[in-house]
Design brief:
The protein is of the alpha+beta class. It is globular and about 40 Å long.
Length: 114
């Protein structure tokens, strides 16, 4: 797969995740969650302050057939460093669903266990 195709594949995952987030939080507008350009460093989805209140996360998206989950987690943690946002990895592959990985303690906090 060439670089352009790989970036397009990653963007498609980001667009799906963005739509899932917007569907889950009816109070947010499309401008509250922006898909970051593949050439830019940092989070793959840029969240407004309103979106951060609903989703206090830092998202790293990977749309690959084979994923090194540990390096993806490290990348998400680097993006979240210095913030209070939970680093998460959203990943997928061809003909598969979208999945999320994060620290178990943080997952249950996000789910309301505080």
């Amino acid at each position: 797969m060439n670089i352009r195709s790989a970036k397009q594949k990653g963007r498609r995952l980001c667009e799906r995740i963005r739509q899932i987030m917007l569907d889950a939080a009816m109070t947010l507008s499309p401008d509250d969650i922006i898909v970051n350009t593949a050439s830019n460093n940092g989070e793959d989805l840029l969240l407004s302050q309103a979106a951060r209140r609903v989703f206090p996360v830092c998202i790293e998206a990977k749309n690959q057939e084979r994923i090194d989950i540990w390096s993806a987690i490290a990348q998400a943690e680097n993006h979240a460093a210095g913030t209070v946002h939970t680093p998460i990895v959203v990943f997928s592959r061809n003909r598969s669903g979208d999945y999320v990985v994060c620290n178990a303690r943080e997952f249950f906090k996000l789910m309301g266990g505080q």
